[in-house]
């Protein structure tokens, strides 16, 4: 049995993956957007070709969801981002016992949600700029992070559905007490 101090230390160590991932995503997202705004200015539609007709940097003011879907719903998505962040933060103690892949995925979602929320507060829209020409949407680092985080969580849930969840939690609790 662990002491209260050992338990607290265990939880902090386990949450480092989640919160460091979120911080890294937020940093890369906001830094890349600042660079693009300096490079292209603030006029929507401005672009630079990076790799011929494969990859462009094109400025899009997105008031909708990831990849420009559901335009003109900025307030709804700002509220959703706040809810995602609050739920993850309030669930920290429980997340600490989750497998590393779940903690990583939640960190990606948290960082992405905060990144796009920062844009909505600062500009009134999300700054999108990654234009893969064979893909119909323009997106940003936060969008990609949220999407990859959701895919990782779904993959984990599909691969570990059923009674394995409880045994994993008990395994992690046993490992932590050693």
Q: Your description of this structure?
A:
This protein has 178 residues and is of the alpha+beta class. The chain has one domain. It contains 6 helices and 4 strands, in the order H-E-E-H-H-H-E-E-H-H. The protein has a 4-stranded antiparallel sheet. A hairpin with a 3-residue loop joins strand 1 (47-51) and strand 2. Helix 1 crosses helix 4 (100-123), helix 2 (74-90) runs antiparallel to helix 4 and helix 4 (100-123) runs antiparallel to helix 5. The longest helix has 37 residues, at 4-40. The chain starts with a helix and ends with a helix. The model has no long low-confidence stretch (mean pLDDT 86).
The main β sheet shows up as:
4 strands, antiparallel
Number of domains: 1
Query: What overall form do the CA principal axes indicate?
Result: elongated
| Major beta sheet, strand line-up | 1-2-3-4
Low-confidence stretches: none
Number of helices: 6
List SSEs in N-to-C order. HEEHHHEEHH
Over all CA atoms, what is the radius of gyration? 19 Å
Distance between the termini: 9 Å
Helix content: 55-70%
Binned strand content: 5-15%
Structural class assignment: alpha+beta
Average residue pLDDT: 86
Q: Total strand count, please?
A: 4
Enzyme class: hydrolase
Membrane topology: Multi-pass membrane protein
Protein name: Lipoprotein signal peptidase
Transmembrane segments: 73-90, 97-117, 137-159
């Amino acid at each position: 049995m662990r002491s209260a101090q050992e338990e607290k230390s265990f939880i902090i160590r386990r949450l480092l993956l989640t919160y460091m991932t979120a911080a890294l995503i937020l940093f890369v997202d906001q830094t890349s957007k600042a660079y693009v705004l300096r490079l292209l200015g603030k006029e929507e539609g401005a672009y630079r070709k990076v790799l011929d007709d494969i990859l462009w940097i094109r400025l899009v003011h997105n008031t909708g969801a990831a990849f420009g879907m559901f335009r003109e719903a900025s307030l709804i998505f700002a509220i959703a981002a706040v809810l995602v962040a609050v739920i993850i933060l309030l669930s920290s103690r429980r997340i600490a016992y989750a497998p590393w892949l779940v903690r990583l995925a939640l960190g990606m979602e948290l960082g992405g949600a905060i990144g796009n929320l920062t844009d909505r507060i600062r500009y009134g829209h999300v700054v999108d700029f990654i234009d893969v020409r064979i893909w119909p949407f323009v997106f940003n680092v936060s969008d990609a992070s949220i999407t990859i985080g959701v895919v990782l969580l779904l993959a984990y849930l599909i691969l570990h559905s059923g009674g394995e969840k409880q045994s994993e939690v008990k395994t992690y609790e046993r490992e932590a007490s050693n």
